Amino acid sequence: MSIYSVIFITLVAALLVSFSQIMFKKGLKDRLHTRWDMLRLAKNRLIVGGILIYIVAFVIYLYALSSAELSFVYPTFAASFIFIAVLSSLFLKEKLSVLRILGVVLIFLGIAIVAVTT
Asked: Rounded to an integer, what distance in angstroms lies between the CA atom of residue 42 and that of residue 33?
């Protein structure tokens, strides 16, 4: 498999994981205090949907991992941090501070460096 295919597959997995995290956050209306609160999550469509998307992303990630070195796939998967910053800003109305944006840019540069060295 070409390295570009591995990058694409890994980014798809990272994007799906990021969407599942957004679903988890949206599905949590209140803080979890008791075991009963945690058990109730099994009936929450956003939480269950997020878990299913997470499983799909995990399978895709394993496929990418079977096609390339861990030292390449895992850093590429760090794009999920970038996706989370953007998606949480869009869907959860979270603020992106200058320092957070700088962190996202540094993560992007790190991924680019790993991609170039492979």
From this structure: 15
